[in-house]
Design goal:
Radius of gyration of chain B: 31 Å
Number of helices of chain A: 8
Strand order of the largest sheet of chain A: 6-7-8-3-9-10
Oligomer: heterodimer
Strand content of chain B: 5-15%
Distance between the termini of chain A: 28 Å
Distance between the termini of chain B: 30 Å
Order of helices and strands of chain B: HHEHEHEHEHHHH
Number of strands of chain B: 4
Largest sheet of chain A: 6 strands, mixed
Radius of gyration of chain A: 18 Å
Shape of chain A: globular
Strand order of the largest sheet of chain B: 2-3-1-4
Largest interface: A-B, 22 and 19 residues
Chain lengths: 260, 297
């Protein structure tokens, strides 16, 4: 029997215990998910389309509630939290949505500024940080552009900038490199790594095995709604230890051997 | 606070929805009707005050004419003697025949010029305001001396008129209340529509940590802005309408209605209308959003 999740656990940033999720009366899309991540963890979440990666991320960013099991974030049992407590917790979580979910009527600047404004930051701080970050992701000349006028890759960079602008303690990214070229993809992943070094726990759901190989961080894999955390098995199954996997994405880096 | 609310930046695409197009017109219509109701109430209030001041302390005594001038004089002096001895009678004045003929001119025309027309004598009595004069007992007392004397107590029909005006004023308040309810209903409906239209953006705001109050403030600011815009538009339309009604009333010689007297507080009352309606819209929008967001989760 797995250990009980404590309601206040300073050690874990994320803790899932026997979590199950179903939509309506349909079958369980996630079954018996149990794992825990401490501060400064970095995980790649792998899995085929429909395996439940997005559903798992939705549970993590509290867009969904589990149908069974317990989820703790930052040591707090999410199920026992009131509606008024959730926003404060959500401000500690940065999310890069697969479909970006940018607000089309706002400029790139205002989209990225949203999390700071929602948290009540001073406008002078908002301006300084947002301009700096947008320059870093290569959108210095598009501060006032609205998302529909930008390419998919540019929109994705705005979405990433919005997710990291408040230096969240937990960063969740759903296919964050899906619409950018390899070079920009790697650059964005390095941004995630920088945040990770500063103490942010990062979970990246991706199909891009090249990036996975390049970044050399632990992996976990969803298969038919179940989570496999046996890295050796995943690496062997996906052939991540073979050279040339992920060709066309980032080149294989030396770091992946570290997983072995 | 109003300025802060109006300056607030909106994270939701409020300017692109239909809410902004028709809400100001609806509120303008509400304020227009409210201004008419308020003007009606103020005019009636003034009229009642004027009637009260002019008539509440007066009684008319009518003495039937005698067979000749001597008898007329006798009757008149007997009545005046009673009035002079009556406590509470402050002043009395017999209206001259010329004045009486003048008053009767609209009914009898030039026929009144014939000096032999038997016209009753009229005494205008002013009663001390602190004294309650029983007109019926006065009439009995006078009739004992001079048969046929009648006492016309203006307070009787004045009180009936005041009752009528009070009913009209209550109706005007009811109209204002209904307008308020209609405003609330309209804002609830448009806010709910706005919530449905912006559901996706609201979800994003929630996911990045926005409190319900943050989202509600955006709707409230919008409702306040549209409310003020519509409110002052309605007031601007009501001003020429009221001026037109006032002009027509003066032209037709409606002397029962007093000339409009626009004092500072009355102007303030009219200016308060659009602000009050806008504040009502703001509070309604806020509470609607808070209630609906709780249900959405």
């Amino acid at each position: 029997m797995p250990p009980k999740v404590r309601d206040s656990d300073p050690e874990s940033i994320v803790r899932f215990e026997n979590v199950g999720l179903r939509y309506g009366l349909g079958p369980e899309v996630l079954q018996d998910i149990t794992f825990a991540l401490g501060p400064s963890s970095f995980r790649f979440l792998l899995g085929e389309s429909g395996a439940g990666k997005s559903s798992l991320l939705k549970l993590l960013y509290m867009a969904l509630r589990p149908t069974r099991g317990q989820i703790s974030l930052f040591g707090r049992n999410v199920a026992s939290m009131s509606r008024n407590e959730l926003p404060r917790l959500r401000r500690r979580v940065g999310v890069v949505f697969q479909e970006f979910r940018l607000l089309d009527h706002l400029s790139a600047f205002d989209n990225v500024a949203l999390p700071m404004r929602v948290a009540g930051a001073r406008e002078s701080d908002v301006r300084r940080h947002v301009e700096e970050l947008l320059a870093w992701v290569g959108l210095k000349d598009h501060l006032n552009s609205r998302p529909p006028t930008l390419s998919g890759g540019q929109q994705q960079r705005i979405a990433i900038a919005r997710a990291v602008i408040t230096r969240p303690k937990l960063l969740l990214a759903d296919e964050p490199t899906g619409n950018v070229d390899d070079k920009m993809g790697l650059r964005l992943m390095h941004l995630f790594e920088e945040l990770n070094k500063l103490g942010t726990t990062v979970i990246v759901a991706t199909h891009n095995l090249g990036i996975v190989r390049q970044m050399a961080h632990p992996v976990m894999r969803l298969e038919n709604g179940r989570l496999n955390t046996d890295e050796a098995e995943i690496i062997s199954d996906l052939g991540l230890d073979e050279p040339g996997i992920g060709a066309g994405a980032a080149p294989a880096g030396p770091g992946f051997s570290r997983i072995h | 606070m109003l300025a802060v609310m109006l300056r607030r930046r909106s994270d939701l695409p409020m300017n692109e929805d239909t809410l902004g197009r028709f809400l100001p017109w609806l509120i303008a219509f509400m304020v227009f009707l409210s201004a008419l109701a308020l003007a009606g109430m103020l005019i009636l209030n003034d009229a009642v005050k004027r009637w009260d001041t002019g008539l509440n302390a007066t009684v008319s005594v009518q003495v039937p004419p005698g067979a000749n001038a001597r008898e007329d004089e006798q009757r008149l002096s007997q009545v005046l003697a009673v009035l002079a001895a009556k406590p509470g009678v402050e002043r009395y004045e017999t209206l001259s025949k010329d004045r009486l003929l003048e008053l009767l001119k609209p009914w009898i025309g030039e026929a009144g010029q014939a000096q032999d027309l038997p016209i009753p004598m009229l005494i205008d009595v002013t009663v001390d305001r602190g004294v309650v004069l029983d007109a019926q007992s006065l009439a009995k007392e006078l009739q004992a001396r001079v048969p046929g004397v009648s006492v016309d107590d203006h307070r009787v029909w004045l009180s009936q008129l005041v009752r009528l005006v009070t009913v009209i004023q209550v109706l005007a308040w009811a109209v204002l209340g209904l307008i308020g309810l209609a405003t609330i209903g309209t804002v609830v409906f448009t806010t709910r529509t706005g919530l449905a239209i912006h559901r996706e953006a609201i979800e994003v705001l929630h996911l990045i940590g926005a409190q319900d109050a943050y989202i509600a403030r955006q709707f409230a600011s919008r409702a306040l802005g549209l409310g003020l815009k519509g409110g002052f538009l309605g007031l601007a339309l009501a001003v020429p309408t009221l001026a037109g009604i006032g002009y027509l009333a003066m032209e037709t010689g409606a002397t029962m209605v007093p000339k409009p007297d626009l004092g500072f507080f009355k102007v303030l009352g009219f200016l308060t209308l659009p602000v009050a309606v806008a504040l009502l819209a703001m509070m309604t929008a806020r509470s609607t959003v808070m209630r609906n967001l709780k249900r959405m989760s």
